[in-house]
């Protein structure tokens, strides 16, 4: 077992694990840690706890110290510089006529590095922009391209439910979301109704998907020919939560085109009373969570030191 401490660098960001060393650290405290990006200021979201070594994917970097008064002052100063820094970068982006949208900016606590986050439809050649920024700020510059989901997470907003976005309040990691999940829940496939403010499929489609998948087992598709206690019929509608099927029975007669006629009345049957004549083939699941929106990689990352 290894002792670890969980640290967040954003209020709703992912929790990263660090080696607490010999420090007595409690949840809610601010700490200075060493990361791949340099020395950073973070907040302890998980106090000292023990984890199995196999559950820790990377060698742990250390917690350097509990943040002191000077660190807090520097952090507040860095936060106050964001708006001005974004404005300067935006002006340089327009000057270079680059097709990119700035999202956020961060300073390391050491004050020797600034990180700009941006979105773009494709790769952007920002090498000259990095040089311009380095000449203005006289520190190391990093530009990091993120996806639309990460943009929504950073900027925040209100979802169609009327509440703050899950990704900005409690959701730390994005999970794969597919159009099949919307189909399982009998939702409208209108993109405007099942997409979030990020333009991608809503993360909440996944929350109840396992339950709907379980309840949907054995439910026939609309238009499917099934057997009922009253004879053969055609499925016109289903209610997954109530586990019922609405069917129009065949009359036994043929119309002028040779097709079987259906009764005008709809009858409702429990799922257990329905006998499927054949198991239909379902379309393969297609994920909406791809390299364009996951933000897991650092596509387009670059550094330049003057």
Description:
- Strand 7, helix 3 and strand 8 form a beta-alpha-beta unit.
- The protein has eight helices and 15 strands.
- Helix 2 packs across helix 3.
- The strands form three sheets. Strands 9, 10, 11, 12, 13 and 14 form a six-stranded antiparallel β-sheet that branches.
- By secondary structure, the protein is an alpha+beta fold.
- Helix content is 22%, strand content 29%.
Keywords:
22% helix; elongated; 306 residues; 8 helices; single chain; alpha+beta; five-stranded antiparallel sheet
Report a brief summary of the structure:
With 306 residues, this protein is an alpha+beta fold. It is 22% helix and 29% strand.
Q: Percent range for helical residues?
A: 10-25%
Which structural class best describes the helix and strand composition? Answer: alpha+beta
What general outline do the C-alpha atoms trace? elongated
SSE ordering: EEEEEHHEEHEHHHHHEEEEEEE
Secondary structure tally: strands = 15
Cα-atom Rg, whole angstroms? 27 Å
Indicate the low-confidence ranges by residue numbers.
Answer: 286-306
Tell me about the biggest sheet?
6 strands, antiparallel
What is the overall pLDDT average? Answer: 85
User: What is the CA–CA distance across the termini?
Assistant: 43 Å
Question: Percent of residues in beta strands?
Answer: 25-35%
**DSSP helical segment count:** 8
